[in-house]
Amino acid sequence: MRHLANQFRKNKLIRNIIIVASGTAAAQFITMIFSPIITRIYGPEAFGILGVFVAIVAVLSPIAALTYPVAIVLPQDDFTAGVLARLSFWLSGIIASITILIVIFFSFEITNVFQLQIDARYLYFVPIFMFFSSFLQVAQQWRIRTKQFAVTAKVSIMHSLILNSSKVGIGWLHPFAISLIYVTVLGSLLHSIMLFASMKTKSTYGDSETVNKQTYFNVAKQYIDFPLFRAPQVFINALSQSSPILLLSILFGPISAGFYTLGRTVLGVPTQLIGKSVGDVLYPKLADALNKGQDLSKLIIKSTLGLAALGLLPFGVIILIGPIIFGYAFGSEWTQAGEYARWLSLWLFFMFINRPCVVAIPVLGLQKGFLIYELFSTLFKIVALIIGFYFIGDDVAALALYSIAGVLSYVFLILWVIKWSLKSSLNRT
Q: Tell me, what's the pLDDT at 38?
């Protein structure tokens, strides 16, 4: 037993996963403690409006820097990684500025054409959030690159406490959707500031005197597959993730979007707690393994099976008694959210276990194929949701079809990545 404990402590991968997961667990625990209070203060409609806003920024924010922040982990030298960070800052500023001009001139047209169930004035927060989230992406990826997982964990806990306390405090005075949006936008800025606080700018991002236009151009060209393939893929994936909220809001109203938002938030806990923690730690591990010519397939398969074993209990419980849990925890008006959660559990379980395969995609150089997959997968799920509305006319049935389409899509993705990882390993032997 002592020998096993010593081996466990020496395993850096497991130890780092535990560090990240512990911080995420504490942050999610804080969120869950505050959730019954927050849901009783604001109600389903306010949550629905927040859900629509978050859906919009979720689609646009990841591409604010054309996904160059994701590449920060890959370079072997810190200078190149630093140039990628600086490039991300510049791009996010340019894209956010273009977005705010579009909002100024076309905010009402956008809400009318897309039938968005929110006040057009809320769109002014979108480019602000995009700019803040790009800073956050850079900070997170640099922490992952330098394996500063303990810092990330501590910041997650502090951020969760401040964010949820603010929602409750402001909600007592002004319990409306705009309060939730204010806190969400400022929370993104706070999170990035907290992660940047202990970084040394010069050592992190390189001496500005040595970074000229040609350097930016060379590095941007070296990682051109990120804006060409990863950025469109992330955009389509975010559209796929956000489409249920937007479509439920348009087809069934903001209250339905509120039910979905709460269900998605609660079921996102295992994904954030374990799935993202495994992905954050596994990504640099896979990159290092590739640089050293090591086998990637065993690590991917073992991580996927491990997540499957861990996810059976939490997702299974929601499938069995979701409405009872939601009604008791969040108030009787949220029981319908538990019905939503039952079907969401099927889809999100496979999203949970596919995390190792997703982080392996840029390492294996599969981003072009991933873009094609994402396009067809998104169309498949959106069509399923629309069929549920037009042919059945029931919100739960529409969500059920969407979830089943998501399950089939993720099963294909997992098998595809594992196949390529095995092929890559055989080619190196």
A: 92
What is the Cα–Cα distance from 254 to 341, expressed in whole angstroms?
Answer: 17
Alpha-carbon distance of 57 to 51, in angstroms, equals 10
Do 51 and 261 touch, CB atoms closer than 8 A? Answer: yes
Q: How many CA atoms lie within 13 A of 397 on its CB side?
A: 9
Distance CA 214, CA 216 (A): 5
Quote the pLDDT of residue 331: 84
The Cα–Cα gap between 322 and 334 comes to 11
**Nearest Cα residue to 175 out of 37, 51, 31:** 37
Cα dist from 75 to 78, 265, 363, whole Å: 7, 34, 11
Average of per-residue pLDDT across 291-304:
83
Q: pLDDT tens across 137-170, in order? A: 999 899 888 888 888 888 989 999 999 999 999 9
- CB contact at 8 A, 160 and 38: no
Look at residue 294 and give its three-state secondary structure.
Answer: coil
Exposure of 155 in the CB half-sphere (CA atoms within 13 A): 21
Structure token digits, residue 243: 């489409």
Q: List the structure tokens of 307.
A: 């997540």
DSSP assignment of 45-105: HHHHHHHHHHHHHHHHGGGTTTTGGGGGGS-SSHHHHHHHHHHHHHHHHHHHHHHHHHHHH
Residue 300 in contact with residue 287, Cβ under 8 Å? no
Is it the case that residue 209 has pLDDT exceeding 70?
no
Burial 42-52 (b: 16+ CB within 10 A, else e): bbbbbbbbbbb
Place of tokens 């850079």: 138
